[in-house]
Amino acid sequence: MLFKQRLMKGISQNDLAKLCNLNQSTIKDYEIGNLRNEETYNYILSKLK
């Protein structure tokens, strides 16, 4: 879901990471399911709305 939302907004992983004050690798890990902290996941999603 995160990957699709990011692509629909036309935002790169790097740009989203900057917007969320996170590393690009953290965004990648959430997109592929390696990280599962629900609070952080929802925070990232909120930045795409």
UniProtKB/TrEMBL annotation:
CDD domains: HTH_XRE. GO terms for molecular function: DNA binding. Gene3D superfamilies: lambda repressor-like DNA-binding domains. InterPro entries: Cro/C1-type_HTH, Lambda_DNA-bd_dom_sf. Transmembrane segments: none annotated. Pfam families: HTH_3. Signal peptide: none annotated. Residues 4-31 form the HTH cro/C1-type domain. It comes from Anaerosphaera multitolerans. This is XRE family transcriptional regulator.
